[in-house]
Amino acid sequence: MKLGALCLTWGPFPYTLLIHPQHYEAAHAFAKLYLSREGNGKRRNQLVGYSSAKSRSSVYHNQLRRKDEPAVRVMWLVYLVWIVVFILLAGFRWVRRRFDFWKDRGVEYIEPEFPFGNFKTLGKVEHIAPITQRHYDYFKQKGVPYGGVFMLTSPLLYILDTKLIKTLLVKDFNYFPNRGVYFNEKDDPLSAHMFAIEGTKWKTLRNKLSPTFTSGRIKMTFPLVVGVCQQFCDHLGEVVQQSNEVEMHDLLSRYTIDVIGTCAFGIDCNSFREPDNEFRKYGKIAFDKLPHSPLVVYLMKAFRSYANALGMKQLHEDVSSFFSKVVKDTIEYRESNKVVRNDFMDLLLKLKNTGKLEEAGEEIGKLSFEEIAAQAFIFFTAGYDTSSTAMTYTLYELARNQEAQEKARKCVLDIFAANNGTLTYESVGNMGYLDQCINETLRKHPPVAILERNADRDYQLPDSDIVIKKGRKIMIPTFAMHHDADHFPDPDRYDPDRFSAEQMAKRDPYCYLPFGEGPRICIGMRFGTIQARVGLASLLKRFRFGVCDKTQIPVKYSKTNFILGPANGVWLRVEKL
Ligand code: HEM
């Protein structure tokens, strides 16, 4: 049965009368009547179109159509406008309802801004660190253990209470095993690295790779780290001869790139002689120039299966091609030339070929080429900027606190003296006051400012009736907690004594989380700390650092980088000792 239609408007509102075939004749008569009265112009009802399945070919209908065609077009335009208005109104209502999410659940929340939620300034005006600090201060003032905000329209729960943080990260880890980071294993294999992947895949990979970061294996790479550090200090000596005002973040990035390049890829990047080498270039692109806007990244995360189906990638094409090629070439070269080098790539290769780290060792499981490439890539990206940033801020703070710098230097010189003027793996195991300085820097300027977890199944928060539904996100605002005066009195003051054994024993360890916590804690923590200790100890032995006219105080954080890096570098006066 085909229905006909009379299209009319009432004032500005269009509507359509559907006509049953039985009533075609009546509709014809009605249309005819209307048209015969056309011209008096005063009617609120207007016939703007007319059709019936039966009359479509009749002469009479053709006449009507010819006469009314412009009017029908107007009608469709009005319809279109109306549909758009309807969609906008429905969207508006949906967002408004969504913003009642925390109110409906009786959770303290911060009023979101339509339609951006509570992170409008993220990446454009400021880094996530100061935003989370403001949110944290608000909830802290309200005296609540957790509080709700919105990332665009997605509800997000901040956890402030340290006991609850411990429960969620450690005891109830099985409910929150993932970060909810976007990856696309099929079209963008490098994005399927340990930081991003989830569930059993992550667990298996973490079990396979944890043995590569044991103390014994890091010890094997120690001479490589010391070798790069020697080159670094020699290079700084040459730079200082030209000018004693030096941008340290750039130089320290070259140091950590060379360390990770040699330890993870077995490649001499030589960033001191060739500052624009490809590792540096692609490392910077991977961090600084995200291929998508924050909104698209958010949508990709929120609708991951659709984004995966569309083949959307997390990484720039040229970054992926560069790192995949480097890993492929390295593997081919080592396998065909039987090269053995005590580095991470060697361990990854052993896992690829035998599934074991030692001939007589335990079976851990084989790795595919794609898995090796993705892990080498994350060791590089997660390892270089975090460590160089931590070292940069340590020098910045020591330049502003000469007394602390002298104390750190004395501690370093004692260690060198006790080891025949060198550094050994054992001697950097505990560097006393220098470690306190590094810890205080990681408190004040944690390179990773937040921790994120996604609920893998529904979870009821202890002692409450709040349920965090599967797929919802929680956030631990590390930066803000590190600046909470209840945990760290006078938080803006740089005071390495906060990390003396006595002071640490008095504090809840869960208020200080620069490397995260629980089974997903940073796998490179030990390695990152060692490269920072070796670098800083060698620098303090040979150079003195002070502020100069170009030093930006307080340091301004980058807005766009995931890592809490300095926006304009860190300029210091460097003096040879
Ligand atoms: C000062 C240096 C470093 C800092 C501050 C740092 C910080 C962090 C943080 C906060 C996390 C997230 C932990 C969590 O969610 O609980 C993390 C994860 C990770 N980091 Fe680091 N990191 C550093 C150095 C390194 C280095 C040198 C490497 C590799 C060689 C590395 C590799 C990783 C990896 C692979 C993960 C993901 C672990 C997983 O999900 O299982 N990091 N890091």
UniProtKB/TrEMBL annotation:
Membrane protein topology class: Peripheral membrane protein
Cofactors named for this entry: heme
Domain of life: Eukaryota
Transmembrane segments: 74-95, 143-160
Subcellular location field: Endoplasmic reticulum membrane; Microsome membrane
Matching Pfam families: p450
Predominant subcellular localization, coarse grouping: endoplasmic reticulum
Cited CDD domains: CYP6-like
Keywords: Endoplasmic reticulum, Heme, Iron, Membrane, Metal-binding, Microsome, Monooxygenase, Oxidoreductase, Transmembrane, Transmembrane helix
Family in the record: Belongs to the cytochrome P450 family.
Protein name as annotated: Cytochrome P450
